[in-house]
Design a protein that fits this description.
Layout (H helix, E strand, L loop, with lengths): L4 E7 L5 E7 L7 E2 L5 E3 L4 E2 L4 E2 L2 E3 L13 E7 L19 E7 L16 H8 L4 E3 L2 H32 L3 H29 L7 H13 L2 H15 L4 H27 L4 H47 L1
Helix pairs in contact: 2-3, 2-6, 2-7, 3-4, 4-6, 5-6, 6-7
Length: 320
Amino acid sequence: MAGATIFAVYTDGKGNVTVSPRDGTGHFEPLHSSSKTVTLLAGSKADATSVVANFKYRADEPLLQVQSHSSPFIGSWKEGPAFNTTDLAQTLDHHDDHSIYTLDLVSANVGVSQNPFLGASAAQLVGQPQGGAELDIALGKRLLKAHGTLMGVAWLIVYPAGAILMRLRWGGVWAHVFIQLVGTSMVIAAFAIGYTFSGMYGIRFNNTHTLFGASIFGLILVQPFLGIAHHLLYRREGKGTLFGLLHCWYGRAIIILAAVNGGLGLQMARNSRGGEIAWGVVAGVALLAYLGASVYSVKGNKMQKKVKDKDDEVRGGEGN
């Protein structure tokens, strides 16, 4: 929950609650923020059946859009022994589960300065909530899985495979073009899914993974045009071109950046340690395979050059 403002609520041991404002920094325990002030209001309580926290917080975060009709919220909880403390810096364990939803903050405007949680109107609002729409968590998980799978296959398998075929000169240039077009189509689809998912969960372009990913997406769309420019010049001049050199090194750099960003995405999605290791292993295998193909290609070119030189010498001798 990087970038989130978090309110940790737990029992104070005196029949009431403690509300600790904290800053979300990612997949780490959120720590108490002394720069944020929460005022506990009347009506808060903690008993054997319920925990109620009524509090006032004056928001100054630029990402919190108080005029939004669908502001993203995340709720999480942990079962276990009560804390029974007023310590705002109480250590928190990892939550058991969570819920993601949106709230209509425009409808939440009470228009009064006194405690809105007291009185008959407050009881009606609590009994019949009008301001939220819970997101389809199952849909979100499917979107997240599809995004990660498409990106992983494209960057770690398809793109390297197309580059390796070109180095080994298997299938010719059109096999390379076809495979890289498949990879680019997968990246475009995965980006669209990620864009939709990040908008649903309020994490679009407010964290390293999505910002870095959008930049990489823009960069990869330039790559085909470098290849086309090289191909046209090569057909006309019959030798290597600057565009060809740029096309090769530009593509290699983007694949490396994408592999790094994929790791950031796994951390953001709180993937298992095994999943992160698997990502690194596949990326390493792809890199080694490409390096092996490059070495083989260089040796093959040298061998062809030696054969050509010998043929030229033989022809020259025959001419004499």
